């Protein structure tokens, strides 16, 4: 899987399709969750599928979108 391309696609979908009226659960919140999840995974030395950060970021970002 081309992780960078998948991540770009998902982020573009969120930018285009999330309602601007979402004051909390918007794109900014999703990106913050991705960053925090990555920090927790690294702190706990959890195995992350694919190469970090792209594949892990793409996996985390796609979860709320699916």
Describe the structure.
With 66 residues, the protein is an all-alpha fold. The protein has a domain at 1-9 and 37-66. The chain has 3 helices and no strands. Helix 2 packs across helix 3 (54-65). The protein starts with a helix and ends with a helix. The model has no long low-confidence stretch (mean pLDDT 75).
Count all strands and give the number: 0
| Class from secondary-structure proportions | mainly alpha
The N- and C-terminal alpha carbons lie at a distance of 17 Å
Rounded average pLDDT: 75
Query: Can you give the helix content as a percent range?
Result: 55-70%
Helix count, DSSP H or I runs of 4 or more residues: 3
Strand content: under 5%
Give unreliable regions as ranges: none
Kindly summarize this structure in a few lines.
The protein has helices at about 5-15, 25-45, 55-65. With about 70 residues, the chain is mainly alpha-helical.
Give the tags.
about 70 residues, mainly alpha
Write the topology of this structure:
Blueprint (H helix, E strand, L loop, with lengths): L2 H15 L9 H17 L10 H12 L1
């Amino acid at each position: 899987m081309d992780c960078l391309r998948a991540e770009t696609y998902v982020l573009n979908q969120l930018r285009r399709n999330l309602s601007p009226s979402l004051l909390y659960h918007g794109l900014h919140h999703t990106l913050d969750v991705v960053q925090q999840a990555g920090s927790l995974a690294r702190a706990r030395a959890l195995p992350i599928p694919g190469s970090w950060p792209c594949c892990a970021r793409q996996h985390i970002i796609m979860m709320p979108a699916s």
